[in-house]
Design a protein that fits this description.
Helix content of chain A: 55-70%
Radius of gyration of chain A: 35 Å
Shape of chain A: rod-shaped
Mean pLDDT of chain A: 92
Oligomer: homopentamer
Number of helices of chain A: 10
Structural class of chain A: alpha+beta
Largest interface: A-B, 57 and 44 residues
Strand order of the largest sheet of chain A: 2-1-3-7-6-5-4
Order of helices and strands of chain A: EEHEHHEEEEHHHHHHH
Chain lengths: 321, 321, 321, 321, 321
């Protein structure tokens, strides 16, 4: 689905143009074409390939999807795959944005992603001096916006970890902790696959030999790299804490086991001792003087209760109860 | 076993040629010879060595098999070992394809692998312009086809992991989970040994100093490298989740232990208390007034049942039962 | 909040100058301006941006905060983010110092940090020859002071670990050990995020191509790098020991479980045996000669006590009690 | 002990020469001297040092032994330490071969190793064209032979792992599994110390700047490197599986614990219930009508048996028995 | 404390000189001054700084101590920090040797270390040709001596591990094993911090651009690097085995738990069954024919003993007892 297809000149919008005219506008010396697609049909991609003269392999990647994030040079143009992450019903939905960047065009293809990039275009059209930086700057703005949307996701994961910690240390709910830790791990892996390859790719745009279309934007891509490195650091930290949490939870489970066994032992003793006394006074020896005492029975009961009280307080003291 | 032995000129098939004529065709300036062997006899390999003038060490590797994946230069020719993976009865069968690539020939030797590469040859013969790219392109097409066949294997491993997760969290079958996790681990190791060395090898064909026969196909090998990196990432992710799964399963086992102990304790109490009461009323004191009451016996039974009901509901409340 | 705003010439203080005059003093050939802000308003930062001509992205980073430690070049000036760490109520409070360094100015912006850097300025003003080294030396002095403040934090963490070890091996308090280990882990992660990126950044100032403002101070930054590497080593060591501590604690928990089970078993036997004897002498057979013995009852009691004493000493011997 | 001391010319053996003549033969332009020692006395090494003019530090290393595998240049000669591994009584015996390689000599010193290298010499003497490659080729042949002898050791370790797996999943012998896993780990560490440094060392002979005596044999050393990398990969794989095996075995131990507890609980219930019934019918209430029934006793027994059968089948159903 | 202060010329000792004359001797063209301090006062260090013209930062490091091992260039001189390790009462005492090396002097400062380096000086004075190599050789001799003293420490740690293994597999002393493993881990960490940074530092003296004072001693420092790498390998191996040992010990603890539970269950059954029989024959039914048999009582006792013997041998058979 075509979202926008606009030609600009000297940073100002000339016109919404039909798809068929793209290749003509690209020939004009000062024109700059910025096209946005959303979940396109294969036919739409083929059309774009024709109009922009995109490389076979790049279009193939965009068509098939499920690529890992990357930024590749094809001659004097770039092809980037960047993943979007949107939380939905406690899960992370990963979308994919393919960006084709040429000297005088940017084509973004958004897949499985709800949030668009209209705000970038709106700001760029309000501030024409930004668009004058050319396609490299638009490319930066797209990637920067996607990366900025990772931060709330990371914050969400940190909140999840805090809830798990509270479950371990305060609420003692080991079964749901286990599930929550495993769920957190899955999300961390998802984010890792989204962030790490992109970090590697943007790092190459901020230093050393930089592709021509990104010349002059190194500092901007260094900034993105920096943000990604911060996210990467947070993910590593979360991962480390999650590993510790799983061990700590196991420790808690085993501690609970010990405590249950202690309780079992204490109550078993409290029941078994009077049972023994009752057994003794159930013996059938002829010559048991207690049997004839009028206070034999209450004495036996008192003995049972007395021993049990002693046991009870002793077990409280050693914290088995 | 000889599968195919064909000479091409300007991208078009000239003829199926007998093995003995290979060396002659290789001398023709524009000819290109493409030979495919399957599980060959040592003698066949020796013959090929003669006809193509292959390097001693490369032929030795092909003869012995069980090499790790690699791509090596011998003068102006290449020798590649690539592994095939085919799932069979829940196991992964690893085969080996040895590819000898020279300026005007490609020799592929397939071992322990069911699926062949006829589709590549068929497509190449349908579209002669592809074959014109020369032996580098045929080499790429072979490796690409093998790598594409890894994806369904990875999907299968991901499905296995999901079944293990379901076993851990929903079906509570720790014993079979353990076996399944161990089996998954074994397959992950198999895939790792197949993928990682190849990733390293193809990476060297997509940048820096590239062997002569691969000149002009860098972008294609970058694409393969990319696919391998995606597979590598998935394997790393699976491995990480498998490690977590094993710990989570252990946690579940220990939780079950605690719950069994709690049940044991609860039922022990429910049986022990009436046993104690019965013991008390089995004592032989002369002066036990209850013995003479006509409702003494029903009262004792009611006491047993009453205490047990209280215990039962209390244990339900604290979730020991 | 403006803390200091001073112009220097040839290492000597000329005057406290108003913020508006900074840009004028910067134009003077020999002047050096050193400004310190604390938790500034956005407007203050904008003002500084104007006066010093700071780079957009650097100011943006300083405004938003929560950056990871880094040292970046913008033309002939540097922008550094360094974290401060201050223990407070058993937690680590992480603050942030942003330092802008130009050929003839240093601007430090301190956020969420209690301790200031007055001592550095005081010393620099007492010893004018130090200030003559220029902005690179002031930059070094600031970073060095912050890094030196990490050492007592590390010492504190080492003390925490020793307390945990004592808890594991001498006081046997597994529940509080688990919490303490987890808390230690959290602090280690905090320190890691503070130290590791800074180590990477200062390493680049001590060798290879050094930014112009740091020329001549390589040996000083090598010294900082060295201190950071020592801290890094200590953190890695603490982390390794913490991982071992968690496993050791788990082992202790399981050992305790075994010991509780042994005690349970021993006491169960000590109670069950006399109960059995009492049961036997509670049987109703007509022909039980013991019943008629006058010492039958004491004999039975003696038997119970005797068997229990034997059991008790035997369990002591095998260390189940 | 001197094993062999032979002078060759143009690939053909001239004579077995006495040790004292080595230095003279070395002066002849086309001569090549190949000496093999076994567990030599210090004096023998000193003699060799004189005859061949070996470097102080290299001879020192050979004398002391217990070096890690390495290949070092001393001027235009090489000194290599390679470890041999020979299984003996279920243990791995590590020997050491020191190889001194000069432009026209090879001296191998074998320590604590049973298998020699006579077959290499025999083959070299049968095929004089091989010896013409010079000392580099002899060096390759020695290292290659040693490395090839690692493969059966690795196969043995893989068999050990399979036996452990069978012990875990089929024979349920956790105690002997633990020992076997630990033993396997020890052997893996031994092999790792043998293989990894050698891999690093041979890698440097197969590319980049190659020592003069190895010129022309790069492809051969690449082949060795390849074999070592395969062994290295297998060791890493074994190590990973061993780590998983230890966790899996722990899981099995804990599962067994749970199952023992379940059995304990089930049988405890099956014994306790009839004990309770017997207790109830042992009460001394006057008014217990069952006592007077002629079928009271058989009814009580039947009740006990009946309840126990119900319990038994129920426990079978929930798989506690 | 001044240990030695000697001036040499052409490898021969001229005189023990007073500290104040050092700077004068340094000016003589062929003189070489070798000074050794032990646990010096700050004033002594200041004096040395003056006499030798040492760098501020290096002296500062030496004064404060607790540096990590390193070798740093300051102009044409070197500053090295090397740690000594001495076992004492089962602990490892880490000392520190600071070595200042200039073109014609060596100053060693030993802290917290019992063993000195008199043997090096003695040997050097006996064999003047060694001293002619200059300060680089003395530096090598000092570091080599320190590193050689690490080997017995490593041997000690290996012995500790063997004792732990014996404790795990033969003596079954899990509590003391845990302590011993933790103690071993602490020592491994200590050694790691001593060895790893030094390995990194000496590696830079054995290849690439070598500081001037070490020219000509590359092969010697390569030898040290080699020894350190061997120690490093041993430490890594010990660490790996220690990690496995901790898991193995945990497995053993859990196995013991299972065995205790089995024993508990078996003895519980052996006591409970006769208790049940006694309970049955304690019932008060009128019509229990056994009561009137003259052999009823012995029969009941025989029944108890018989069932218990069966149980006992059955439990032996299934190895629960």
């Amino acid at each position: 689905m075509l979202v926008n297809c606009v030609a600009y000149q000297e940073g100002r919008k000339i016109a919404d143009i039909p798809k068929e005219d793209i290749s003509e506008y690209l020939k004009k010396p000062d024109a700059f074409v910025w096209v946005a697609l959303k979940d396109p049909e294969p036919a739409e991609l083929d059309e774009m390939k024709e109009e922009f003269g995109l490389h076979e392999l790049a279009v193939e990647d965009a068509r098939q999807g499920h690529e890992r994030p990357k930024i590749e040079e094809y001659g004097d143009s770039l092809f980037a795959v960047v993943h979007t992450v949107e939380p939905k019903d406690g899960e992370l939905v990963v979308g994919e944005v393919n960006i084709f960047v040429g000297p005088n065009y940017v084509l973004s293809v958004r897949n499985h992603s709800e949030k668009g990039f209209q705000s970038i275009r709106a700001r760029a059209e309000r501030e024409p001096h930004l668009l004058k930086h050319g396609s490299g700057y638009v490319f930066y703005a797209l990637v920067d916006t996607i990366v900025d949307r990772y931060f709330p996701v990371i914050d969400g994961l940190e909140t999840e970890l805090e809830e798990i910690e509270s479950g371990i240390f305060h609420q003692n709910t080991p079964r749901s902790n286990i599930k929550a830790i495993y769920g957190l791990k899955q999300k961390l892996m998802t984010m890792k696959h989204v962030v790490d390859p992109l970090l590697e790719a943007t790092g190459r745009l901020s230093g050393g030999r930089v592709p021509q279309v990104c010349e002059g934007t190194e500092a901007y891509f260094r900034d993105i790299t920096d943000h990604l490195q911060r996210i990467h650091g947070s993910l590593e930290g979360l991962r480390d804490m999650q590993t510790t949490a799983i061990q700590v939870n196991l420790g808690m489970i085993n501690l609970n086991e010990t405590e249950v066994t202690k309780k079992l032992a204490a109550w078993a003793a409290i029941i078994a001792i009077p049972t023994l006394i009752a057994g003794i006074y159930g013996m059938n020896f002829k010559n048991m003087p207690e049997y004839d005492l009028s206070y034999g029975y209450p004495f036996a009961l008192a003995l049972m209760v007395g021993v049990d009280l002693l046991l009870y307080f002793w077990f409280r003291k050693i914290r088995w109860l």
